[in-house]
């Protein structure tokens, strides 16, 4: 276990390094000069030169990279071009919206996906099984943007058939009024939850089926459990490690949906902020934000692998 | 509708599995398609994908209305004989734009799958190579990079490339390629450690030859199915990335473009947004079902008609 932990952490550090280099180089080496892009295509050469000097872009790449990394280590993520605020505080404000959104969405997805996945395995008639299958496949095929729109049309204030929930924006004072803020997150979170729920349902189904194919369910039933109890108590427990890794991967899938949803509902979160910075060509902020997000996902990957390991004792014994 | 009659499917030759060369391959493909057609889901997938290709081809020569024909007096028109699905905010015909969009999406999906397949096979080759450093390194690389979402890669690429089809194709191709390699890893490793690979090497076959004749055929079934699923994800990614402003550039017809142009006005004209969303959903469902049906139909274990003599006895 210790050996595995050490290896996995080394891998994490290596990946973090690779990602930082890739992000850094993507903004510099690929066609298009950073300062020209940031200053705008038609700006005078003097302005471009001034910007280049200001950002230190005329220095050698290695020195720029070193500065950036040293800044990151100190917690200095640079400043945004538009308002001059530190990137760290801007991102901090955005996280307060995105993090609850992701968590709420994931909760809804689990609450929908796991029971439905179990039910689809338990279903006896071919018709019921087909119906569950259809729900899983169609649910996974709906574009996030469209699901959000349909929900707005159903429940959004102003245009909906049942106008009870705010369809866009977030209270100006953030979480100053928790009830209002939470209300603003309901529709976006449900959108994310429905879409991710469909894929969690599929994964639950296939994980349970692979557990069932080992004969564990029959064994439990032979010991006197009902089919339902065998599935929910034995099957789910055995499928748990697989499910945890899947939820981790779903996190990475979710972020595309989350970005679209944040834009659609005009929530000033990480995703819409990143897209905003990109359209404003605030590339220093973009660079740090991309790195932070990628690092976040690498941490998730690390946590998922470790949890998987802890939940499935069979894996611990032989370290490949 | 009555259930499809299996006997009507052209009967497979008795020893189809033994036939080699282009002829046998063609015949096997015919059997696979016929088996897919025999099931409702497979038939739906084949019909939808066939229509998609057909409409894309037709849209090259003909659309009911010109894309650039706009009419300021007929914005947000309801569906009518003139405009089958109504018009959008500048009075352009929604149906024509969706038709033209289908070819952009088809090209994007095809290119994405090709890029993903190339990257996937390259990584499989690296994983099964006999240079330990390369094999270990590639596995580590895949594990590390797979947790980075495609959309982040797309945003990275969008900085130098701007909004373009290349951003979607490269970002999705890269992300899905990693995924393909990961999915194919078990069967690739099994093949690489098998006796027949060992004996081929003992016979003096080059690494290239071993890869092409022994490893690729082993991973291909898994990869093809996974590619079909990736194609569905690529359609969804096109819609999302285009909406975020880093995908298909504005002015180029695509389904994501149709979807996002109508978004801003849903409060006033909710109906226009219905069509592109439905279209994308149907196509993605079809791509997913296609993958599943192909897996069933192309695997001799689940499709007795491919098993040749023992599975298909003449009665």
Automatic annotation (TrEMBL), chain A:
Any one Gene Ontology BP term: transmembrane transport
Segments crossing the lipid bilayer: 97-119, 131-155, 181-200, 243-264, 284-304
One Pfam family matching this protein: BPD_transp_1
UniProt-annotated location(s): Cell membrane
Listed GO CC annotations: plasma membrane
Domain of life: Bacteria
Signal peptide: none
Primary residence: membrane
Residue intervals of the ABC transmembrane type-1 domain: 95-308
InterPro entries: BPD_transp_1_N, MetI-like, MetI-like_sf
Topology class, membrane: Multi-pass membrane protein
Membership in a protein family: Belongs to the binding-protein-dependent transport system permease family.
Protein name as it appears in the record: ABC transporter permease
Originating species: Bifidobacterium italicum
UniProtKB/TrEMBL annotation, chain B:
Lineage: Bacteria, Bacillati, Actinomycetota, Actinomycetes, Bifidobacteriales
GO cellular component: plasma membrane
SUPFAM superfamilies from the UniProt entry: MetI-like
Domain ABC transmembrane type-1: 102-291
Protein name per Swiss-Prot or TrEMBL: ABC transporter permease
InterPro entries documented for this protein: BP-dependent_transpt_permease (IPR050366), MetI-like (IPR000515), MetI-like_sf (IPR035906)
Annotated GO MF terms: dipeptide transmembrane transporter activity
Pfam families: BPD_transp_1
Family statement: Belongs to the binding-protein-dependent transport system permease family.
UniProtKB keywords: Cell membrane, Membrane, Transmembrane, Transmembrane helix, Transport
Species of provenance: Bifidobacterium italicum
Membrane topology: Multi-pass membrane protein
Transmembrane helix as UniProt keyword: yes
Recorded superkingdom: Bacteria
Signal peptide location: none
Transmembrane intervals: 44-62, 106-127, 139-159, 165-184, 268-290
Keyword Transmembrane on entry: yes
Compartments in which it is found: Cell membrane
């Amino acid at each position: 276990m210790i050996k595995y932990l050490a290896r996995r952490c080394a891998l994490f550090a290596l990946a973090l390094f690779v990602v930082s280099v890739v992000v850094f180089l993507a903004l510099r080496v690929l066609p298009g000069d950073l300062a020209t892009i940031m200053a705008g295509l038609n700006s005078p050469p003097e302005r471009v030169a001034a910007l280049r000097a200001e950002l230190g872009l005329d220095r050698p790449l290695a020195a720029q990279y070193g500065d950036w990394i040293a800044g990151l280590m100190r917690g200095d993520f640079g400043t945004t071009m538009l308002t001059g605020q530190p990137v760290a505080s801007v991102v901090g404000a955005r996280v307060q919206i995105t993090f609850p959104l992701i968590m709420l969405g994931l909760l809804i997805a689990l609450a929908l996906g796991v029971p439905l996945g179990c039910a689809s395995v338990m279903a006896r008639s071919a018709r019921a099984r087909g119906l569950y299958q259809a729900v899983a496949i169609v649910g996974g095929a709906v574009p996030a943007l469209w699901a959000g729109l349909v929900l707005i049309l159903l429940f959004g204030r102003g245009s909906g058939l049942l106008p009870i929930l705010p369809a866009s924006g977030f209270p100006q004072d953030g979480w100053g009024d928790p009830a209002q803020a939470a209300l603003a997150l309901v529709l976006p979170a449900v959108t994310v939850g429905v879409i991710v729920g469909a894929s969690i349902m599929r994964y639950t189904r296939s994980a349970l089926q692979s557990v069932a194919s080992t004969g564990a369910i029959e064994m439990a039933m032979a010991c006197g459990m009902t089919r339902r109890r065998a599935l929910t108590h034995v099957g789910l427990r055995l499928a748990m490690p697989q499910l945890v890794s899947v939820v981790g991967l779903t996190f990475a899938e979710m972020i595309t949906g989350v970005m679209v949803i944040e834009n659609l509902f005009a929530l000033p979160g990480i995703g819409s902020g990143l897209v905003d910075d990109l359209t404003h060509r605030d590339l220093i902020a973009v660079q740090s934000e991309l790195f932070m997000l990628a690092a976040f996902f690498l941490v998730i990957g690390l946590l998922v692998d470790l949890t998987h390991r802890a939940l499935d004792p069979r894996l611990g014994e032989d370290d490949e | 509708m009555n259930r499809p009659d299996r006997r009507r499917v052209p009967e497979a030759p008795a020893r189809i599995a033994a036939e080699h060369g282009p002829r046998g391959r063609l015949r096997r493909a015919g059997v696979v398609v016929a088996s897919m057609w025999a099931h409702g889901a497979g038939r739906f997938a084949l019909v939808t994908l066939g229509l998609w290709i057909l409409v894309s081809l037709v849209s090259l020569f003909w659309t009911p209305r010109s894309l650039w024909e706009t009419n300021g007096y007929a914005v947000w028109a309801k569906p009518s004989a003139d405009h089958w699905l109504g018009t959008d905010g500048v009075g352009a015909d929604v149906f024509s734009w969706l038709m033209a969009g289908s070819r952009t999406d088809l090209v994007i999906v095809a290119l994405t799958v090709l890029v993903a397949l190339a990257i996937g096979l390259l990584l499989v080759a690296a994983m099964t190579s006999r240079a330990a450093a390369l094999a270990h390194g590639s596995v580590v690389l895949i594990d590390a990079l797979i947790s980075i979402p495609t959309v982040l890669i797309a945003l990275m690429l969008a900085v130098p490339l701007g909004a373009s089809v290349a951003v979607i194709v490269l970002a999705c191709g890269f992300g899905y390629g990693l995924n393909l390699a990961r999915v194919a890893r078990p069967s690739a490793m099994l093949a690489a450690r098998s006796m027949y690979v060992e004996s081929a090497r003992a016979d003096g076959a080059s690494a290239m030859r071993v890869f092409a004749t022994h490893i690729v055929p082993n991973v291909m079934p898994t990869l093809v199915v996974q590619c079909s699923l990736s194609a569905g994800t690529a359609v969804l990614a096109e819609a999302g990335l285009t909406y975020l402003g880093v995908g298909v550039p504005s002015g180029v017809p695509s389904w994501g473009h149709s979807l996002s142009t109508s978004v801003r006005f849903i409060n006033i004209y909710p109906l226009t947004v219905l069509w592109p969303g439905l279209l994308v959903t149907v196509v993605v469902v079809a791509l997913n079902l296609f993958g599943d049906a192909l897996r069933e139909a192309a695997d001799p274990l689940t499709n007795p008609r491919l098993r040749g003599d023992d599975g298909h006895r003449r009665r």
